[in-house]
Sequence to fold (116 residues):
Amino acid sequence: MTKPKRVASPYQRNALAPSLVAAATLFLAPAILGGDWDMLVLFLVSILAVIVGWFAIQAKQWWWPPVFLAIAVLWNPVLPFPFEGIVWTIVQPVAALVFLAAGALIKVRREPTAKK
Fold:
């Protein structure tokens, strides 16, 4: 018995991997922040926000870049905002959910490949 041939998806989700890394970082951020890892979290989230925003531009989904620009500014490590307390603790998982939604929804159609 032969296995059925797998059909590749017609779409590719370039933003999925950086979104998953950013979401994991943001879900862990309340436990990490306040120690030596603050700057790493800020750098990682802001850089990944710019990357996911760029993939959204490439996918011509224009509603995502302003969201990720805001995330990149709020989590910027160069001029960090002095956020603390319950609001900052609540905003971290909300931003993680935004990354997860974007990673699932930002997609581009694959170019057809020539068959040999």
In short: The chain has one domain: 14-108. Residues 14-108 form one domain. The radius of gyration is 17 Å. The helical segments are 16-32, 38-58, 64-74, 85-105.
